[in-house]
Amino acid sequence: MAAQLGQLYGSVRVVVDERQRALLVLVNPADRALIDQVVRMLDAPRPQVAFEAEVIEINRSLSQALGIDYDLSLFRFGVKETNIPNPTGGNPVRFGVFGRDVSLPIGFSATLNLLQSSGAGRVLAKPRVVTTDGVEARINATQNLAVIVTNNNVQAVQNLSTGITLRMLPKVAPDGSIEVQVSISVSAPTSQTQNSFSFSTRDATTTVRVGSGEAIVIGGLLENRRTESVEKVPGLGDIPVLGELFKTTSTTTAETDLVIVITPRLLTPLR
């Protein structure tokens, strides 16, 4: 602030008292009212923004088998739909903005509840965080996956981090609207063969301007997950070569989609 006052008014002398976090401003009496106004404007507290997020994983294969078409309910309830490129190729990532002061349309909420009750959807995380205007908020909903690796016939346990990382950078406009830059990164194992794992990463970044209380919905982070499980007769299934006769291998493939709902709210400072 001292530098800003000096740039605006060359005749102003500003002394900074860092210990008391105060400014001593020396100015001509005729300019005092104007300087007081400038100090109040520059010393205004920066607004704070609270983010409420909900991360929902939907099993598209199971939802289609059950006849639940969440795509229609997601983007046909007064939502403004926009596509952003998918950095990994394929279909673009879609996001939309719901109306002000409405957490989610009734039809969309009912569809999500149906997906969860039928086992086709599950909530991975419901984090909340508060940040200041212009300061990035970061949410990590990750876990360590212990994987047994073999090197030169020696087995060891290696911890791999998987999960969801959300980064949200708010910029509050004078009219109270909020420009939010949202970055999402999702890493998860896509296939498993005994102790061997393959991982995929889904990323998306977009910037959208919303009002306080409007919900940002992001979907289209698709993933094909392949899981291979082995059932064997204890003892006999471990016999070299002949053990293959006493074990059964099954493979399942599921297509999943992540739906992320982010609601920024402008906090009113206490007076």
TrEMBL record:
This is Type II secretion system protein D. It holds the Pfam family Secretin. One of its GO terms (biological process) is protein secretion. Keywords: Membrane, Signal. GO terms for cellular component: membrane; type II protein secretion system complex. It is found in: Membrane. It comes from the Bacteria.
